[in-house]
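In this section we walk through a basic example: taking a raw amino acid sequence and producing a predicted 3D structure, encoded as discrete structure tokens. The instruction is simple. Fold the sequence below.
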Amino acid sequence: MKTAKFDKQFDEGGSVAKYLDLSKARRPKQEQKRVNVDFPLWMIHQLDREARRLGVPRQSIIKVWVAERLEKVA
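The resulting token sequence is shown next.
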């Protein structure tokens, strides 16, 4: 499929998924890397309490709070 036809089909709301190799798709700056961080026990307890209050996993609280702080200092 030529680029112009692909763009036209996409712009008109048509599905173009069959023309894409999604196994190779990447989200720039969204790749993940596992890191280990040691927290004092009192922090873990407070994180868990807040996570329960919000109904989300502890990891979600940590990610959101770190992201907020990084955006603030950027």
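Looking at the output, two observations stand out. Residues 3-73 form one domain. Residues 58-73 form the longest helix (16 residues). In the next section we compare this with other chains.
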